[in-house]
């Protein structure tokens, strides 16, 4: 079985190359067209990416994340969410890499097998970076009205948090 996995990618690449070699299309112009479209897309989303990176750095460096966590921790502990998970919960909708840094810190302090470590791991696997994904998508398509996408995504994030806590409390 591992031999199949080891040879699958080289076989697929080789077969694709053979099929392209016998194709009657002008592959070089198609390649250049794809590169041109990719550069246009990159130029279109670059301002959004820069804004998100700056916002995440400002949130982390300003101490606002710790202040929000200290305000929310009494309420979260009452409803069954460990306070160690709060930085991950707050960073996850904004930045995947920021949430990964927060979960690493949580693992260093509490351990990956702790209740908080398991909840954070399940949450990371079941949720997405909401603001990053929506801002990139909507800026790329030029949408001005996002409708219910952002509130629905946050409701889903909260649902994922509670389900993560529930599942980890069972197991």
What's this entry about, in short?
The protein is mostly helical and 171 residues long.
Estimate the mean pLDDT confidence.
Answer: 85
Total beta-strand segments = 0
Fraction of helical residues: over 70%
How much strand content do the residues show?
under 5%
Biggest beta sheet summary: none
Class derived from helix and strand content: mainly alpha
| Tally of contiguous helical segments | 8
Low-confidence stretches: none
Determine Rg (CA atoms, Å): 22 Å
State the domain count: 1
Termini separation? 31 Å
Shape: extended
What order do the SSEs take from the amino end to the carboxyl end, as H and E? HHHHHHHH
Descriptive key words:
single chain; 171 residues; mainly alpha
Could you characterize the architecture of this molecule?
The protein has 171 residues and is an all-alpha fold. The protein has one domain. The protein is 81% helix and 0% strand. It is built from 8 helices and no strands. It is extended, with a radius of gyration of 22 Å.
Question: What is the topology?
Answer:
Blueprint: H1 2-21, H2 27-62, H3 64-78, H4 86-91, H5 96-110, H6 115-126, H7 130-141, H8 149-170
Helix pairs in contact: 2-7, 5-6, 6-8
């Amino acid at each position: 079985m591992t031999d199949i996995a080891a040879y699958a990618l080289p076989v697929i690449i080789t077969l694709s190359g053979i099929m392209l070699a016998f194709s009657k299309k002008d592959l070089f112009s198609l390649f250049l067209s794809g590169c041109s479209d990719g550069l246009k897309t990159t130029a279109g989303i670059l301002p959004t990416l820069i804004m998100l990176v700056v916002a995440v750095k400002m949130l982390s460096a300003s101490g606002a994340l710790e202040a929000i966590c200290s305000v929310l921790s009494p309420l979260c502990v009452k409803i069954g969410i460990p306070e160690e998970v709060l930085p991950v919960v707050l960073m996850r909708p904004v930045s995947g890499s920021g949430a990964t840094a927060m979960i690493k810190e949580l693992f260093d302090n509490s351990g990956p097998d702790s209740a908080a470590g398991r909840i954070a791991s399940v949450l990371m696997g079941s949720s997405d970076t909401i603001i990053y994904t929506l801002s990139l998508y909507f800026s790329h398509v030029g949408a001005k009205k996002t409708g219910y996408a952002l509130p629905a995504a946050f409701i889903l994030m909260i649902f994922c948090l509670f389900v993560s806590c529930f599942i980890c409390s069972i197991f």
